Amino acid sequence: MEKRSRSFYVLAAFFALFLVFLYGPTITIAILSFQGPQGGLTFPMRGVSLHWFHDLFQQQAVGDIWGSFGRSLVLGLMVMATTVVVSVMGGLAFRKRFPGSGVIFYLIVTSLVIPSILISLGVGLIFSQSGLTVHWSTSGFGSQLTWTLPFGLLIMFAVFNRFDKSYEEAARDQGASAWQTVRHVVLPIIAPMLIGVALFGFTLSYDEFARTLLTAGSYNTLPLEIYGMTTNVTTPVIFALGTLTTAFSFLIIAIFLGVVLVLRKRQAKLGSDAGQGMM
To answer: Signal sequence span per UniProt (predicted)?
Structure first.
C-alpha cells in the first residue's frame, strides 16, 4: 500500500475539526433535548426521557410555536413556487442579450451583498410609508424573494448555458410551437435542476431571520419565534423544538432528493425506450 503523506493526515484532521465545528452545536442541542424532567439547559444531563418533546406539544406560557411554524411553512411554499417560476422565466430570457440585461443582472447580484437587515428595514419602510400593512405574507414575502431569487436565477443561468439547443431545434422541426417546446422538451430535461431551485427557495425562506425581522408584522415566523423564546424559555423545551425543526429540515431535503432520483430514473427509462425504438 502507498504510504500516506503527512499533509493527508493534516487535511483529514482539519476536515474532522470542521465537521465538529459545523455539526457540534446541533448535535449538542439534540442530546440535551432528551433531558429528564428535572434537566436543565446544560450538561451534565439529569436522566433521559422524551418529557420535553411531550411538553412542546402542550400549551406554552410564552410564544406561539405551532402558529409560527404554520406561517413559516406557508411562506416557504409561496417563496419556493415564486422562485422556481421567476427563475425559469429569467433563465429563458437571459439566453439572449437584450437592452438592459447587464444592468438587471448586476441589480440581481447586488441584493446578495447588501446586508440583510438593511433589506428588511427598507422593505418595511416602503410598506409602512405607502400605507400598506406590514405582514409576513406581503412585505415578508417580498423581502425573502430578494434573497432566494438571485440564487435561483444564478442556478438557471448555469443550467441554460450548458443546455443543448439541438433538442429544441429537433422539436421545432417536428412542428412544435415555442410553448410546446418549453413544456414538453425543456422543462422535463431541466426538471432535476428545478427541484434544486425549489429546495433552495424553501430552505432559505424557512430559516430566514434578518430579512423577516422588520417585515413580518405582528405575527412571527418560526425563526423569529425561536429567537423570542431564547429570552423567556429556560427549559430544554427549546432544545426539543430545535431538534424537531432540524429533523423537519432533513425530511424536506430527503423528499426533494427522492423526487430528483425518481425524475432521473424516469428520464433514463425514457432515453432507453427511445434508443430501443430507433433500433
So the answer is: none
Return the residue matching grid coordinates 429556560. Answer: 234
pLDDT per residue as tens digits for the range 155-189: 999 999 888 888 888 888 888 888 899 988 899 88
Q: Residue 25, preceding bond cis, omega within 30 degrees? A: no
CA 62, 60, 246: angle at the middle one, nearest 5? 95
Q: pTM of this prediction?
A: 0.85
Cβ(199)–Cβ(208) below 8 Å: no
Contacts of 21 (CB under 8 A, 6+ apart): none
Rounded to whole angstroms, how far apart are CA atoms 139 and 145?
10
Cβ neighbours for 214, distance < 8 A, ≥ 6 positions apart? 117, 120, 121, 123, 124, 134
Contact call for residues 66 and 131 (beta carbons, < 8 A) = no
Convert the pLDDT of each residue in 34-75 to its tens digit.
998 888 888 888 889 998 998 888 776 666 888 999 999 999
What SS3 class is residue 33? coil
Pick the CATH number of 63-232 from 3.50.50.60, 3.40.1620.10, 1.10.3720.10, 3.20.20.80: 1.10.3720.10
Cβ(65)–Cβ(225) below 8 Å:
yes
